[in-house]
Amino acid sequence: xxxxxxxxxxxxxxxxxxxxxxxxxxxxxxxxxxxxxxxxxxxxxxxxxxxxxxxxxxxxxxxxxxxxxxxxxxxxxxxxxxxxxxxxxxxxxxxxxxxxxxxxxxxxxxxxxxxxxxxxxxxxxxxxxxxxxxxxxxxxxxxxxxxxxxxxxxxxxxxxxxxxxxxxxxxxxxxxxxxxxxxxxxxxxxxxxxxxxxxxxxxxxxxxxxxxxxxxxxxxxxxxxxxxxxxxxxxxxxxxxxxxxxxxxxxxxxxxxxxxxxxxxxxxxxxxxxxxxxxxxxxxxxxxxxxxxxxxxxxxxxxxxxxxxxxxxxxxxxxxxxxxxxxxxxxxxxxxxxxxxxxxxxxxxxxxxxxxxxxxxxxxxxxxxxxxxxxxxxxxxxxxxxxxxxxxxxxxxxxxxxxxxxxxxxxxxxxxxxxxxxxxxxxxxxxxxxxxxxxxxxxxxxxxxxxxxx
Length: 454
Known about the structure:
Elements: H1 19-31, H2 37-49, H3 55-60, H4 69-82, H5 91-104, H6 106-120, H7 124-133, H8 140-155, H9 167-186, H10 190-195, H11 212-219, H12 223-226, H13 232-253, H14 259-276, H15 287-302, H16 311-323, H17 334-342, H18 345-350, H19 359-379, H20 388-405, H21 416-428, H22 437-447
Helix pairs in contact: 1-2, 1-4, 1-9, 5-14, 6-13, 6-17, 6-20, 8-9, 9-11, 13-14, 13-15, 20-22
């Protein structure tokens, strides 16, 4: 069955998705029009995109023998139209952002776990998609590691700008995953659903035993109430959690970037957002713009309701995963307290993180944050680059990164060459080049890693 041309329509961001990726998945599913069509199509797509390991692979990609011509043509069009960076991309700013990410290293990972991801789960509809897919309560570790598998390729040197990088390739894979989720939940192309075009549903299409994909297809979706799944509002909001919330977290820790560096970091992630299919109008260029947009999208998203509310379960699963990496029982609530410090009180309430914490843990946390900020303020008058807060956050980030992301028994799902580069980068983060030797030794003790030798 050939795909029917789709009407061009305008509407609120909740009713706008990603025409390029959605049309690609619709054409692919239509090419496998049978009771098992969606799952056969997904299998073919997974096989083909597995060969997209570097940005150079996108330009030279050719379909595997036996790939249906309609599917091959849809993927070729997707790569042709989706892999180019926007004409407003500034390679100098992107390179600066890459350098900043590498310099912040373990701090970046700590903020990912305790700021970006928690804020990401605040929107009820976004949390509802994850809840429907069982992606945090049952597969928290998988979901977090999948996020890291996109962030590292994007922010490593040349990830977005060189043929040897892998950022564009990884983002285009994620973009197709989003489109697949939308198609399975809605059982059709989102544009057709919004336009009110009905398509006959094959009654036997649902197949048992297909795991996540079968779950998504079986649950259905109320578009009138929730908008489209993974819509433009949710995509833009998620992007803000990766750049604005990260930068805001640095301010909360007392180690912010300079204003021009913040804008470079926002710019690099906006370029990534373009490749991911986010509309340019939803990408802020400055921290002031980002703050305003973040507040607007969060307030707008909170007006949606989802019963029962999945957010406390999702937040609890994330905190439990982090607590499991902390050996001392009295410190297992630290991730909750750090998240409450980095995020707003409303976010803590949304995720059910405002419950009472034991007095000893609370006192220890306040003392840690208070003492580090006081020491930083005092010592920086003599040594401007010094930051005890940076050291403590790096120690937290090290435990989370090494234990949860870099476990050799469960490597990130990345091409071997790229995985080796990530491993090398993480090991290079063990020593903070901005800190004196004694600070690195103290950080090693806090993080529980081998001590530096003279």
